[in-house]
Design brief:
This protein has one domain (about 1-75). The chain is about 85% helix and about 0% strand. The protein contains 3 helices and no strands. It comes from Staphylococcus equorum. This is GlsB/YeaQ/YmgE family stress response membrane protein.
Length: about 80
């Protein structure tokens, strides 16, 4: 059950941040979906021993990794254009 919730939280956070912060291109949405799910698993595995609630750790991990990946994508696009 926890794996399913982690997948759902990661997918929701990844897709929503992608649609909110970037242009709605399919590769960006797919990359942010993958980074959101991976971030949710990483956040859960790292923050569960600290005693935090499960969904909060998945949200924190998905949010931070997705923002990092989207920042790298947008920065690299700006560097190539200029």
């Amino acid at each position: 059950m926890s794996i399913i919730l982690t997948l759902i939280v990661g997918a929701i956070v990844g897709i929503s941040l992608s649609l909110w912060l970037t242009s709605n291109s399919i590769p960006t949405v797919i990359v942010s979906l993958i980074s959101g799910v991976l971030g949710a698993f990483i956040g859960t595995s790292l923050l569960i021993p600290s005693g935090m609630y499960f969904l909060i750790t998945a949200f924190i991990g998905a949010f931070t990794l997705t923002l990092l990946v989207l920042f790298i994508i947008n920065t690299s696009i700006d560097v190539v254009r200029n």
